[in-house]
Design goal:
The protein has 374 residues and is of the alpha+beta class. The protein folds into 2 domains: 6-137, no CATH class; 145-373, Hypothetical protein af1432, CATH 1.10.3210.10. The protein contains 17 helices and 5 strands. Strand 1 (53-59) and strand 2 form a beta hairpin. The protein starts with 5 loop residues before the first helix and ends with a helix. The chain binds fe (ii) ion (2 copies). The site of one fe (ii) ion has 4 residues, from loops.
Length: 374
């Protein structure tokens, strides 16, 4: 059958990919996944009308739907890759396909189930297999956060817009995104890959915040931290620099070294950030602390200046490492990015003085391992 309009085909494919990518980050019963599955089911039902079936073929990176190759579309290529990686070369959807069957299809192509592919045909969804190479099902090609979803990106951008307007923001939206990062990293997705594409899309503060979040998660997971505490450590990284919105923009963006007065102004950002976060409902205490403490240094020689028996929170010390690492590896107006060896020696110089030495060594060990895996 080929009577389905091309734009309808693209819409169906887009919804399937969105649902699968979201299901890979969250659980299948997450409200956002349920909404996307419902939308995909409705679109498929509406598009089929009186037609008996929709057939999709995945050949190479190309998806053929209703006998028409869907060339040049990001979503169609993505769906073709997802199907192929699950060993599915041929997918047939029959009338009257149910919502439960569409949800099962999403589970199958998102590969959220531990134990691998579960491509069993049901009454109205039939799979034809292709030979699968082992490397296709190792999980490296899962819908990970290299393709942060439109909805998630919108949530993040909205949150940062609220922050830029100094308005209180809803922490639950970004909390579920941080949990999604944890899921993607657990699914063998190399978190270092996430540090690249986002950077190209948005300005420094936004991407730096996400990078520090991911790097904090990597550190936390390598230390065996899980659950709520891990999520809070990620959030602490994401929000550590929110106080910069209260800084004078011309000083913040000055493409040169700051003078003493400008430096004194910038040194207020940890305190201003902590005060702001305290005014936002539901913000974890660790995020407030990380904002306040992330420039205090391991030796307490940094700022804000506190009494000598001040005890730094562990997540703040992790944030310091992620923060400095990300700043060193990033191209700025006044700085060229440094390679890993140079960053390693700089961090080791700071270990025991500016940075917690054990955490720094652990961080470098994990980074080396991840870099080798890339
Ligand atoms: Fe900072
Ligand atoms: Fe920072």
């Amino acid at each position: 059958m080929n009577r389905i309009q091309t734009d309808t085909q693209h819409e169906i494919v887009r919804q399937l990919v969105m649902a699968a990518s979201t299901a890979a980050l969250y659980a299948i019963d997450h409200p956002q996944v349920i909404r996307l599955c419902n939308a995909a089911h409705s679109s498929i039902k509406a598009a089929m009308g009186s037609e008996a079936e929709i057939v999709m073929l995945a050949i190479g990176d190309e998806l053929i739907m209703a006998e028409i190759p869907m060339k040049g579309s990001y979503y169609s290529e993505k769906l073709a890759r997802l199907l192929k990686a699950r060993g599915i070369g041929h997918l047939k959807i029959l009338q009257p396909v149910t919502l439960a069957e569409i949800r099962q299809l999403i589970v199958t192509i998102s590969r959220v189930r531990p134990g691998g592919v579960d491509a069993r045909s049901s009454e109205n969804i039939r799979y034809g297999t292709v030979e699968v190479r082992h490397s296709d099902v190792t999980g490296r090609d899962i819908a990970g956060f290299e393709d942060l979803l439109e909805d998630e990106l919108a949530t993040l951008v909205n949150t940062f817009e609220r922050i830029a307007e100094r308005q209180p923001f809803e922490v639950s939206g970004i909390t579920s995104i941080v949990s999604g990062f944890v899921g993607a990293i657990r699914n063998n997705f190399n978190p270092l890959l996430a540090l690249v594409p986002l950077r190209q899309m948005d300005e420094y503060t936004f991407t730096h915040s996400l990078d520090v979040c991911v790097l904090n998660l990597v550190q936390g997971m390598s230390l065996g931290i899980e659950g709520q505490l891990l999520t809070e450590i990620g959030l602490a990284g994401m929000l550590h620099d929110v106080g910069k919105i209260f800084m004078n923009a011309s000083i913040l963006n000055k493409p040169a070294k700051l003078d003493d007065a400008e430096m004194a102004h910038m040194q207020q950002h940890p305190r201003r950030g902590a005060e702001y976060l305290l005014s936002c409902p539901g913000i974890p205490r660790l995020a407030v602390l990380s904002s306040f403490e992330h420039h205090m240094q391991y030796s307490l020689a940094g700022y804000p200046s506190m009494h000598s028996d001040w005890q730094l929170a562990l997540p703040s010390q992790m944030t310091m490492i992620s923060d400095i690492f990300d700043a060193l590896r990033t191209r700025r107006v006044y700085q060229t990015p440094k390679d890993f060896e140079r960053i390693e020696s700089l961090l080791l110089e700071k270990a025991g003085v500016e940075l917690n030495p054990s955490l720094t060594r652990n961080f470098l060990k994990v980074m080396k391992r991840l870099s080798v895996e890339l």
